[in-house]
Amino acid sequence: MPAPDVDSSSTSAALPPGMVLGPDGKPCRTCTDWKSWNKIGKEKGKKGSKSNADGAAGGATATAAAGAAAAGAAVAAGTGSATFNYEAECPPDKEILGRATWTFLHTMAAYYPDKPSPMEQSTMKSLLSSFSQFYPCGHCAEHLRQEMKVDPPKVESRKDLSWWMCGMHNKVNEMLGKDVFDCNKIDERWRDGPADGRCD
Ligand SMILES: Cc1cc2nc3c(=O)[nH]c(=O)nc-3n(C[C@H](O)[C@H](O)[C@H](O)COP(=O)(O)OP(=O)(O)OC[C@H]3O[C@@H](n4cnc5c(N)ncnc54)[C@H](O)[C@@H]3O)c2cc1C
């Protein structure tokens, strides 16, 4: 099992608040939100680093992109002669990775069979178990593994899996102080779209 990452608050190193270190002891982009990550770029910039290509980019451009990334928008930020689109061009931070992953997980649940075969149920359990080992935000994965021990995946039907996934996501929402999602709306959000047809 991969070693969990470490929040900067638990280390004595002079790291920006919110920065998380990966198991290799280096700053972990996929465990850190862009605003915290961006602070490293600013420090690098102060020290005269020439390159900001690793996404720890300092300066106004990256800050503008950080806002876009935090809002989940693929907004172009001016870089002088060119524009750059953070979400399209840069490796994901924790927020972008999280949104993309939840999109995949909820959509996968939404299209899971109503009556899965024993083999399909077993495959889904394996997939979720493997997923929780390799999700590239270590402390997120660790939290998920703990939750899955207490509340193992429900794979007996599409509805069971969709509601279980909704519950897992809500546990993370609650932990992060976000609104809890109404699981009665799971199919509307992830499969059917709203009744007024605006997504059709
Ligand atoms: C498995 C996993 C574990 C994570 N653990 C952590 C963690 O420990 N710490 C951390 O800081 N971040 C964690 N994240 C990231 C975090 O959950 C968010 O993805 C990220 O903060 C971006 O949040 P968001 O508000 O943009 O929307 P998200 O929470 O990513 O949600 C995306 C969309 O899903 C819909 N939605 C929201 N809640 C539900 C629900 N319950 N059921 C169905 N649909 C819903 C909404 O329409 C929302 O816009 C984790 C992500 C994943 C995939």
CATH architecture of the largest domain: Up-down Bundle
Unreliable stretches covering 5 or more consecutive residues: 48-79
Measured between the Cα atoms of the first and last residue, the distance is: 43 Å
Biggest pleated-sheet summary: 2 strands, antiparallel
Protein name: Sulfhydryl oxidase
Keywords: Disulfide bond, FAD, Flavoprotein, Mitochondrion, Oxidoreductase
Domain ERV/ALR sulfhydryl oxidase: 90-190
GO molecular function: flavin adenine dinucleotide binding; flavin-dependent sulfhydryl oxidase activity
Q: What report would you give on this structure?
A:
This protein has 200 residues and is mainly α. The chain has 2 domains: 6-89, no CATH class; 94-192, Four Helix Bundle (Hemerythrin (Met), subunit A). The protein is 50% helix and 5% strand. The chain is built from 8 helices and 4 strands, in the order ββααββαααααα. It has helices at residues 34-46, 59-70, 86-89, 94-110, 118-134, 138-150, 158-175, 186-192, and strands spanning 6-7, 20-21, 76-78, 83-85. The strands form 2 sheets. The chain has a two-stranded antiparallel sheet. Helix 1 packs antiparallel against helix 2. The longest helix has 18 residues, at 158-175. The protein is globular. The termini are far apart. The structure holds flavin-adenine dinucleotide.
